Amino acid sequence: MPGKPATKSHQPINVDSPATRTRSKTTDHDATQDDDAMPISPTVETGSKRKEDEVSTEDEEDPLGENEPAPKKAKVGDDGHAQPKKSEDEDEEEADVKPKSGASRGRRASKAGGARGRASATTKKEEDEKAKKEEASEDAEMHDEETKPAAGDEDLMQEVNGVLERGHIYFFYRPKIDVGPEDEVHDLDDVSKFHILLLPRESEASSKKQRFRLFTIGKKRLPDRAKGGREVFWASMQKFGDDFTEFKAAEAMGPRDYETKTKGKRHNEPARVAGRGQYALFSPKPDTPSQRATHLLYYLTHPSPDEIGEVQEELSIYASGSFLIQIKNPKASNPPQAGLRRDKKADYGEELVEEKFGGDAEAGTGRRFIAPNPASMLDFEGTEMLLIPEKHEVEEIMTDEKTEQAIEKEATEEAHHLSPRDVLKELRLNEKTFPVTALEGDWL
Predict the structure, then answer these.
(1) What CA–CA distance (Å, rounded) separates 236 from 381?
(2) CA geometry: angle at 264 spanning 261 and 266, to 5°?
(3) What is the C-alpha to C-alpha distance for residues 412 and 302, in angstroms, rounded to an integer?
(4) What is the rounded (10 degree) CA torsion for 113, 119, 120, 121?
(5) Which listed site, 62, 173, 317, 417, has its alpha carbon 20 to 30 Å from 73?
(6) What is the mean pLDDT of residues 336-363?
(7) DSSP letter string, 58-122
């Protein structure tokens, strides 16, 4: 591996700056549409819980005892002595037997009625408050049930600092139409499309299915890191899914024959595997929100660094590399003859556009580009993005030293233990249809 330059501090490029907007206009024409895309309609469920204010039903205490009745004077009997105080039960029994005057009965009846009225009013108030509280609780539960995300999706769009994901990366190119064995590809002019395939590494707890993402690069090659940020290429998400076997790579990347009205029968050769490696999506913790960035970093395993040939050189596939990725707000307009058609653009939904981009860029409320974090922000067919090459070495950008060393070590081991034919087997491709010639550095 080439010598490592001294570590330098660097900041992600702000694509919303005037300078970058100017540069983006010059590269917008690089965007192409992939006729090979097979649509998938992803759905993302988002939910939020509504908090309800609890209504207190506790009575207020009377700490000063101001509402207690005044003490009664002791009664004096016929013998001049104070009579002993009767218990409440004795008073009640005597009251039941002793005849009362009309006024006394009226006053006592009025007091009893008032007490019963107050008790009844208090009870009714408590019951009403209790009913309101239960009703609010039921409404909250129903709302939570309706808006609750599907199991496992609660953190689908939560941002992460550090390594977002790891896995294997593959580079493909497809020859132009009617370029066959008798008229082989000789250089970049004979290439019609360039693709990147990502196969994220699955955790031990996950299913055995292999997720995948397929991108198309507008300029039919990678932006050259030797030119720094001067080369900014458009790319788009063509296909993604949770099961690589359903992708049917041999069919999607295989040969095609079809008829045209003007030129008759046409033939398109299968795509060629031009590189394979280990990759990581990395997002360092930013000092400020404006410094958020997501890097796509890779170490090449095939061909090995000392076997890189003409194919890799023309496609700008280095032994290792790093790119800043910025995804485009689907509400933002494209320059003329650049980007995908409106009906081909990603559909994030209004809620996600508001949450991640800050709103509609054309209305002046949202950002045109953001760093994809988490990685699931890439899982929308028609996602448009910018690839911005970085001059710095991978180890300078990835501050998680332990993970960076693990990726480089695994890449080195795979370069020694896996043959080009093993790479085809990983992708479920047969050597007869997909020769390993390009993977060994020579055009085909």
Answers:
(1) 8
(2) 120
(3) 10
(4) 110
(5) 62
(6) 86
(7) PPPP-TT-TTSPPPPPPPB-TTSSBPPPPPHHHHHHHHHHS---HHHHHHHHHHHHHHHHHHHHH
Per DSSP bridges, beta strands 272-283 and 162-175 are antiparallel
Q: Does pTM top 0.70 for this prediction?
A: no
The structure tokens listed for 79 are 């013998």
Question: Per this entry, what is the length of the chain?
Answer: 444
Tell me the one-letter amino acid at 153: D
Give the burial string for 273-292 (b: 16+ CB within 10 Å, else e).
Answer: bbbbbbbbbbbbeeeeeeeb
200 phi and psi angles, rounded to 5 deg: -60, 145
What single letter denotes the amino acid at residue 294?
T
Neighbours of 254 (CB within 10 A): 16
Least confident of 45-59, 139-153, 294-308: 45-59
The residues, ordered by sequence, that sit 6+ positions from 332 with a Cβ below 8 Å of its Cβ are 361, 362, 366, 368
Residue recorded with tokens 């209504």: 55
Residue 56 has pLDDT above 50, yes or no: no
Per DSSP (E only), the strands in 289-392 are 295-302, 320-328, 369-370, 384-389
Q: How far apart are CA 240 and CA 375, in angstroms?
A: 12
Query: What is the distance in angstroms between the CA of the first residue and the CA of the last residue of the chain?
Result: 27
For residue 367, the tally of other CB atoms under 10 A from its CB is 18
